[in-house]
Design brief:
By secondary structure, this protein is α+β, with helices and mostly antiparallel strands. Helix content is 37%, strand content 17%. The strands form 14 sheets. The chain has an eight-stranded mixed beta sheet. It starts with 7 loop residues before the first helix and ends with a helix.
């Protein structure tokens, strides 16, 4: 080949001549090249060189291949396709004058190549449109070289500066100085020698300017990816080799779902759309649009519009857009105008077509524009897309899976996939609606139905559906019912009942278990019991407020109670009793505490309808002990059909029964207890301070029907009460009453109280208050004897019914009786028995209404006697026993003395006598031996020849200061013992005083005390 095959010398000569003739041309060329290198093309090196390679391949009609080899400080870009030509060199050296114009004007031929590479029909094959892309090399190099099979050309900043200097033109030299030596690089081409790499037709060699240029190249190569191949359909392969390895880009379309559209503007459209575009652009009446969606959701998108190479127009859509948008002079932004507006509409239509295609294989709502736009062009695209999509079938029908236009679709607010499947046949156009899709569906204008609205319509739309259908519907709600807001919307959900009705709202309905017979459920439906049809039952109903209908919950229903309480007036009482007993029979324990079940009427042995609480089991204890005027035996057929446990649970008695109520307010007794005989009287008697107001009982269990027990049946009844655990507890366990001040008080049970108050023996006297068979003999002498049969009763039972075993068992009336009989002169009571009895009486917490007129006091010879109460005193210490002038003595000490004084209304001795010692006496030392034996005794005592107190002679006394006084050795012993609070040591002290020679013996014995 010749040295200058591309005529570079002629180009240089013409350019230099122009600069010499008009230095301002030099300045214009320098500024324009600098604007391109530092502005619009500063980071487009890889894109622009790949674009040139794609254009060369299209011109040659061959698959385009590009090699980017970056090693050391040099970048080599080799490509296949049409080699460099003289026109190409002139284009490279001429700003904004593309050599591709003739190709564009030959549209059909170029279009054929473009179509083969994947462009649309009629689309120009060449991508470059401005002839300035090669200037991007100036961002990294001052010495670019282009080698082709047809020859080579280079550009050089240094050689250009030398050529200008060789002209010797002062004006040019001045311009160069003003620019600090910076000259246009690409205006003066120089011939170059060399060959492109094997297998390639052209190579661009770029010696990099510095490290910053090398870093820029490394970044741009790393950013290259599939979007580059998709933007340049003329390229089939891009190979990138660096010191870190080789990366190959090819077969991009296998990783993307792609939709293309293209066309050619007619004459009228050209006049309208291209009128404001540059002349060379007006010669290109073609357009193309490509949308691409990554098959891999993790693929990163450039998020900018490609026109068809990247611009700086932000794109918020989750797709890649490549379109022939017109660009402004910076080549980084889309120019405004009618052409852009038209391409926006074409892009919107193409995007809708892409979503329609993708909707065949899956959901596309995530691709619908929502939220804020990223820019003006993005906003225009989004508005255009949202104008097209509502009429594009992209949403799928729940019923048959067909694609629907969003404007024909409807969603049910809050409904999930499972519920939608059930609703689909009755809600035309229903589509699924996940929460993340809400904004997209709103943007598409999909009609929304409130869940509550749909639920309200179900009663009409699905009125004829089977219970099984409803069960499937409820099962579909399993996820939705966990959301509190959705549960509120489902509040009027229709529910089929066992009696055939369809009611709105699950709250309060009863959910039957498998153990509940359907005929029973239907029977209760007539009384307003709302039980869900067993075939429609699903756990979701419970989350919506329905109540699992165990036999217990069904029995607790107010409608069941009404049916029971009015069963005697029912059209078919036996149907009611059958329904109730069938429930109870499944688990009799479920009826516990439902006292009103005893109002259920059943047939007795004579065929009469009788409340269950007035029926007894034939041959039972209950039949034996209860008055046959009050109770009747139950029909044997009823007993056989339902069993004793079921009948007992509703109140039929085989033995005596109990009733229990919790949280009982004594001033407002619950209805369950109202039928107990004299329950109001018991409440008054046991209430703190006689007032029922504010008094409560945590739990009260009472034996029922005590007033129906035959008078002669009590021996058997009390035996039953003592042996059956529930009855025994109801009798013997005290009731804990809490007063208004929150203080607890233990009181007799209702059953014990009733027996004490109401049960009379054959003599017409109460059983209560009689002497227990194991009573203290002294106490028993003052009480009536209990019947012999009571000895066989449990001691706790005897105590509960009022038999008295010890003084503490006496009530107020019993105390009055004992005091009355204690004062009976005909009674002979030994002193020792009376002393013990006084100690017991003195500790009683109760007092009779009136004190006795006569009391028994100590007498002579170890016996006792009765005196008038005014002639008696209570001696609370032994000194007073010397004062016979005070009257007869009732003896006790401490609190018992005070108790006896109050009980008998007899004064204490110190209340009727001053107890003052007459005279002073002579002080004497207490013998050491006495102090050694009893260290507590005082050190001194006062001796008297004759000791008188209040004028009455005594042998000893202890004054108010605790000083012992005595007139005899025996009196001294007692005085020292009482003064030292060691009354139990009085005999030892007396022995020492009377027999000093026994001191050693007494000391020895004391060591064992």
């Amino acid at each position: 080949m010749s040295d200058d095959v591309f005529g570079t010398a002629g180009i240089r000569e013409r350019v230099l001549a122009g600069w010499s003739a008009a230095p301002v041309r030099f300045r214009e060329d320098a500024n324009a090249e600098e604007d391109l290198a530092l502005g619009g093309y500063v980071d487009r090196l890889v894109i622009e060189l790949a674009q040139n390679a794609a254009d060369a391949a299209l011109r040659a009609g061959v698959p385009g291949r590009v090699l980017f080899e970056f090693r050391g400080n040099t970048l080599v870009v080799a490509n296949t396709g049409t080699p460099l030509s003289a026109e190409g060199v002139e284009s490279l050296a001429t700003l904004r004058a593309s050599a591709k114009r003739d190709e564009v004007e030959s549209g059909p031929a170029a279009g054929a190549a473009g179509t083969a590479a994947g462009a649309g029909a009629g689309e120009a094959g060449a991508v470059g449109r401005f002839g300035v892309g090669f200037s991007a090399v100036l961002a990294v190099s001052d010495e670019p070289v282009v080698l082709s099979r047809s020859g080579g050309v280079r550009f050089s900043k240094a050689d250009t500066a030398a050529a200008i200097a060789a002209l010797g033109t002062t004006a040019l030299d001045t311009e160069v100085r003003r620019r600090d030596g910076k000259v246009p690089v690409l205006r003066l081409p120089f011939e170059a020698e060399g060959e492109p790499p094997t297998g390639y037709d052209t190579a661009v060699i770029l010696p990099l300017r510095d490290d910053a240029a090398a870093a820029l190249v490394a970044r741009l190569l790393a950013e290259a990816g599939d979007p580059l191949l998709l933007a340049l359909p003329g390229l089939s392969r891009i190979e990138i080799e660096t010191e870190h390895g080789t990366r190959v880009l090819e077969d991009a379309e296998s990783r993307w779902w792609i939709h293309r559209t293209a066309g050619t503007f007619d004459h009228q459209e050209r006049e309208l759309l291209l009128a404001d575009r540059p002349v060379e652009e007006r010669s290109r009446p073609f357009y193309s649009v490509l949308w691409a969606l990554p098959r891999d959701p993790g693929t990163a998108l450039p998020n900018v519009v490609q026109a068809p190479t990247p611009t700086e127009e932000a794109l918020s859509l989750p797709a890649l857009l490549l379109a022939t948008f017109p660009l402004d002079p910076t080549r980084r932004h889309v120019a405004k105008g009618p052409l852009t507006d038209r391409l926006v509409q074409e892009a919107a239509t193409a995007y809708a077509d892409l979503l329609r295609q993708r909707a065949e294989d899956g959901g596309v709502l995530a691709l619908v524009p929502t939220g804020l736009a990223a820019g003006v062009l993005d906003q225009a695209l989004r508005e255009a897309i949202l104008a097209v999509l509502p009429t594009t079938p992209i949403v799928r029908s729940v019923e048959d899976g067909a694609l629907l236009r969003p404007r024909d679709a409807v969603v049910v607010e809050g409904s999930d996939e499972a519920f939608n499947r059930v609703l689909a046949p009755i809600v035309p156009g229903l589509i699924g609606s996940a929460r993340p899709d809400r904004l997209a569906l709103d943007a598409l204008g999909v009609r929304r139905l409130e869940l509550a609205e749909v639920v309200d319509q179900l009663g009409t739309a699905a009125a004829d559906e089977s219970p099984e259908w409803w069960s499937a519907l409820y099962a579909s709600l399993s996820s939705m019912v966990t959301d509190a807001l959705l549960r509120e919307s489902l509040g009027t959900l229709p529910v089929p009942l066992a009696d055939g009705r369809l009611v709105r709202g699950a709250r309060g309905l009863l959910l039957p278990g498998p153990e509940l017979p359907i005929d029973v459920l239907k029977e209760f439906g007539e009384y307003g019991v709302r039980v869900v049809n067993p075939a429609a039952v699903d756990p979701a109903l419970e989350r919506l407020g329905a109540i699992p209908a165990s036999p217990r919950s069904l029995l607790e229903d107010s409608a069941v109670r009404t049916a029971v309480e009015h069963s005697a007036e029912a059209d078919d009482p036996e149907a009611v009793s059958h329904a109730v007993l069938s429930l109870v029979a499944t688990d009799p324990a479920q009826a516990e505490g439902l006292w009103w079940l005893s109002d259920l009427v059943l047939r007795d042995a004579d065929g009469e309808l009788v409340p269950a609480n007035a029926l007894v089991v034939p041959g039972s204890d209950a039949e034996a002990v209860l008055d046959d005027e009050e109770v009747a035996p139950v029909d044997a057929a009823v007993l056989e059909r339902y069993g004793l446990p079921a009948l007992a649970a509703v109140g039929v008695l085989a033995t005596l029964g109990t009733i229990t109520s919790a949280d009982v307010a004594l001033d407002r007794l619950p209805e369950a207890l109202k039928d107990l005989d004299a329950i109001e009287d018991w409440a008054y008697d046991v209430a703190p301070d006689g007032s029922r107001y504010g008094a409560t009982v945590g739990e009260l269990t009472a034996i029922r029907d005590l007033d129906w027990i035959k008078d002669d049946a009590w021996p058997r009844v009390l035996g039953i009460l003592g042996t059956e655990p529930d009855l025994r507890r109801a009798l013997v366990t005290q009731v804990r009453v809490i007063g208004p001040d929150d203080r607890p008080l233990g009181v007799p049970s209702y059953s014990a109280w009733w027996i004490r108050e109401r049960v009379l023996l054959e003599d017409g006297e109460p059983l209560a208050g009689r002497a227990d068979p194991d009573a203290d003999p002294v106490l028993a002498t003052f009480l009536d004897e209990a019947p012999a049969w009571t000895r066989d009763l449990d001691p706790e039972v005897r105590a509960a019914v009022g038999l008295v075993r010890e003084v503490g068992d006496l009530d107020a009336d019993g105390i009055s009786l004992v005091l009355e009989r204690l004062a009976d002169p005909e009674q002979e009571i030994a002193e020792s028995d009376l002393l013990r009895f006084w100690r017991q009486l003195g500790t009683l917490p109760l007092f009779p209404g009136d004190a006795p007129d006569h009391v028994r006091v100590l007498g002579e010879d170890g016996w006792t006697e009765v005196v008038e109460a005014e002639a008696a005193v209570v001696a609370d210490n032994p000194m007073w026993l010397q004062r016979s002038d005070l009257g007869g003595f009732v003896i006790a000490s401490g609190a018992a003395a005070d108790g006896l004084s109050d009980l008998l209304d007899v004064p204490l001795a110190q209340e009727v006598a001053e107890g003052k010692i007459d005279g002073v006496g002579t002080a004497a030392d207490v013998p050491d031996l006495v102090r050694e034996l009893v260290p507590e005794v005082p050190s001194h005592w006062w001796e008297h020849e004759e000791l008188t107190v209040d004028g009455v002679e005594v042998s000893w006394w202890v004054d108010a200061d605790g000083a012992p006084h005595a007139a005899t050795f025996d009196g001294l012993a007692k005085a020292l013992a009482w003064a030292s609070s060691r009354w139990d040591r009085r005999h030892v002290i007396r022995a020492v005083l009377n027999e000093p020679d026994r001191a050693s013996e007494l000391l020895t014995d004391a060591s064992y005390d």
